[in-house]
Design goal:
The chain is 44% helix and 31% strand. By secondary structure, it is α+β, with helices and mostly antiparallel strands. The chain has a single domain (5-99), classed as Ribosomal protein S6/Translation elongation factor EF1B (Alpha-Beta Plaits, 2-Layer Sandwich). It has a four-stranded antiparallel β-sheet with strand order 2-3-1-4. A hairpin with a 6-residue loop joins β2 and β3 (54-60). Pfam families: GYD.
Length: 100
């Protein structure tokens, strides 16, 4: 199995995030620095149309590191994230093989 875990974050801007929309690029850099400080990395970031405003894919060393990141991001108050654990095709294949 992989040493790092992958996560997808679907984010909705809060009223604070909308009011400070012009600072989005700066906040994204802060987010990536926080992820790196916790031993992870940001793999991808996209702006979205629809129910969610942004999507970010992370690698993090543990659920605990991801939780610390999420709580810090939520405390900032710019987005409400939905965090989803993600499995690449190799790991998913291993899971399927284990299931039989």
């Amino acid at each position: 199995m992989s040493e790092t875990q992958k996560y997808v974050s679907l984010m909705r801007l809060t009223q604070k995030g909308l009011a400070e929309l012009t600072d989005s690029a700066k906040r994204r850099k802060i987010s990536e620095d926080r992820v790196a400080a916790l031993g992870g990395r940001s793999i991808a970031f996209y702006a979205l149309l629809g129910t969610y405003d942004f999507m970010q894919v992370f690698e993090m060393p543990s659920n605990e590191a991801m939780m610390q990141y999420v709580l810090t991001a939520r405390r900032d108050g710019h987005v409400e994230p939905l965090i989803l654990p993600a499995f690449d095709t190799e790991i998913y294949g291993q899971i399927l093989n284990a299931v039989g």
